Amino acid sequence: MTHDDTLIRMANQIGTFFESMPDRAEALAGIAKHIKNFWDPRMRKAFLAKVDDHAHPGIKPIVLEAIHAHRALIR
């Protein structure tokens, strides 16, 4: 498993947790805040690069939506 695969798996686990929230906006913010608060800056940078290269098979749609909606928070 590559480092990118690990980051995608971790992000998807976060997305799965927040996906069940009834308030979509709150869920998206929660995903972004979790990544900001608990991921090392190098992990965040690598994950954002993966999202930016548009080669993100396997990343849950809710995670991508959270990244796009709250990118400034995550940096």
Brief overview, please?
The protein is mainly alpha-helical. It has helices at 3-19, 24-38, 41-52, 61-69, 71-74.
Contiguous runs where pLDDT drops below 50 for at least 5 residues: none
Give the tally of β-strands: 0
Radius of gyration: 11 Å
Query: Distance N terminus to C terminus?
Result: 25 Å
- The number of helices is 5
**What characteristic shape results from the CA principal axes?**
globular
Range of helix content? over 70%
Portion of residues in beta strands equals: under 5%
Largest sheet features: none
| Class per helix and strand makeup | mainly alpha
Global mean pLDDT: 93
Question: SSE string, helix = H, strand = E?
Answer: HHHHH
Count of discrete domains: 1
Topology:
Blueprint: H1 3-19, H2 24-38, H3 41-52, H4 61-69, H5 71-74
